[in-house]
Amino acid sequence: MALPPSRILVVDDVAENRDLLIRRLKRMQLTDTVEAGDGREALARIREDSFDLVLLDVMMPEMSGIEVLRALREEGRLADMPVVMISAASEIEKVVECIELGAEDYLPKPFNPALLAARVRAALERRHLRTENRRQFERMTGELERARILQLRMMPDHADFDPARWDIAGRMEPALEIGGDLYDLFEVRPGMLCVAIGDVAGKGMPAGLFMARARSLLRAGLLQHVALAGAPRPSQIAGLLNAELCKNNPDTTFVTLFVGLLDLDTGRLDFCNAGHVYPLRISASRGAEEIVTPADPALGVVEDFPFADHDMVIEPGETLLLATDGLGDTQNPAGEALETERILSLAATLSGAKASEALEGLTDAARLFADGAPPFDDVTMVAIRRIGGG
Q1: Distance in angstroms (rounded) separating the CA atoms of residues 37 and 12
Q2: Residues in contact with 288: Cβ distance below 8 Å, sequence separation at least 6, in sequence order
């Protein structure tokens, strides 16, 4: 296999050695070579130009190969530029020191043509492979960052629905670049708000794509129902999504979903809970409590399941908190999870707080509990506060 074009620096204080190395490199079709007669000249050339490989003699007057290598290491150049040491058989201890300093390999004197070709080829192939891996990593990182931004922009960036009577906020924090959580807030018709929050099994890009599919189906299904027959029941929407998500789903990827229709005039919320975390009602009089309903399965698992409808009323002064299980699964360095009881205690202290402040308070409390431990799962929350009352 032909080597890619490579620029090579040959460093040796003996002109005959440099000439021999350059001639043998040319036989390998490596013609872009530069030479230096001592360590100081080599450093100057490296600082003003880029090289794919340096063949560096260990013992030289003025500045030895070891000193050159140490300077290159301090300047952070060895990560992108492999150095192969050239040494006499009697200098093996110094070669070991060079390898410990970051040299890629070594060549013994006198030069063996086959060994020279093999080690130069191996060093260049590793260097170009690392360069390609870094390029691919940077490309993927850039794509993931753009995808993360696009995903976050899919979520509502404001919630000004009847702001004189309702204070609503949402936030999503993916554990990885791309998350599998979703939330949505939009008016199905004037005065009726769709409230949804979901959690796709898994994390990363696959979960993010499934999440985008589920969110698109949610909006399309609601708009279709409204156009054909007026506002549907939440259970109908869950059934429609379930039927679609069960199709072409051999791995049985699923999404838990809480979907509700909120009457902005009365505070009545009709909802369906498909395997999702129970919502919390927060009030000054009762603190924080779970709204427990009979369990329905997540979407994408059981075909033709008859999902159930439930209802509640958000009274003036009360806040409804919706969250994914990533909040309760937040872990500290000891492996302890935040869990429901701690969340209820924290939420109870947020009664009367603005929706955005309640979410910020829970986020800060979760980070404090995690104490620097990496995120265990995506965390998404929605707070719906009905203004008024005590």
Answers
A1: 5
A2: 280, 281, 282, 321, 343, 344, 345, 347, 348, 351
The count of other CB atoms within 10 Å of the CB of residue 233 is 16
Q: Which two tokens stand for residue 157?
A: 């960036």
Q: Give the pairing of strands 310-313 and 268-274.
A: antiparallel
> What's the rounded Cα separation, in Å, for the pair 379 and 369?
14
Closest CA to 198 of 353, 177, 162, 185: 185
C-alpha atoms less than 13 angstroms from C-alpha of 211 in its C-beta half-sphere? 31
- For the stretch 3-14, pLDDT in tens is 778 899 999 999
Q: For residue 313, how many other CB atoms are within 10 A of its CB? A: 12
Task: Count Cβ atoms within 10 A of the Cβ of residue 368 and give its class: 0-12 exposed, 13-18 middle, 19 or more buried.
Answer: exposed
Q: How many residues does the chain have?
A: 390
For residue 38, the SS3 value is coil
Q: What percent of the chain has pLDDT over 70?
A: 94
Q: What is the pLDDT of residues 310-363, one digit of tens each?
A: 999 999 999 999 999 989 989 999 989 988 999 999 999 998 899 999 999 999
Q: Does the pLDDT of residue 147 top 90, yes or no?
A: no
Order of strands across the sheet that contains 181-189: 181-189, 192-200, 255-263, 268-274, 310-313
Three-state SS string over 49-100 comes to CCCCEEEEECCCCCCCHHHHHHHHHHCCCCCCCCEEEEEEHHHHHHHHHHHH
Nearest partner of 65 among 91, 89, 47, judged by Cα:
91
